[in-house]
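Notes from hallway chat w/ T.B., transcribed later so I don't forget. T.B. wanted the structure written out for a chain they're using in a teaching module, and asked if we could keep both sequence and structure tokens in one place. Agreed to drop them here.
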Amino acid sequence: MTAERQERKSRRDIARVLAGAAVGLLAGLPAVRLYAATTDPVVSNRHTGLAIDGFDPVAYFVDGAPKPGRAGLELPLHGAIWRFCNEGNRAAFAANPAAYAPRFGGHDPVAAARGAATPGHPELWLIAQGGLYLFYSAEARAAFARDPGGAIEAAERHWPEVLKNLSP
């Protein structure tokens, strides 16, 4: 990436954060809470900037199913645009993004345990130990489900090294 392109991207990221803070303030939420999420790189579409393909991260917890978010209900955070099904889900996420954002930024924890950064698919998911996990394949999800604690521990052990290999 050229220096000029990096500078443009940085300005866009700052504008997104400021826009997110404005949305939070208009919704009556303190701007500080917008920064509570993990800073792990979030799996997002490189063309649209949508996190987890535009699926509502709160819906997994509230509705027990992945649901696509709406274009009119967005929140920019940490270089990605998050979409939501309704105002309540957007407000819940803005108040505590770390509680709803997929762990490992949406990367498959089974792959992370092997040292690989593999984006998970939003329709292959599980909630374990209070966190949302996305998987690359049904096989990876099944392996995780057999021993969630062990899989999470292994992924966390390898995650710092995986992060080093992710491009900014």
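Follow-up for T.B.: The chain has two domains: 1-98, 102-168. Might be a good example for the class.
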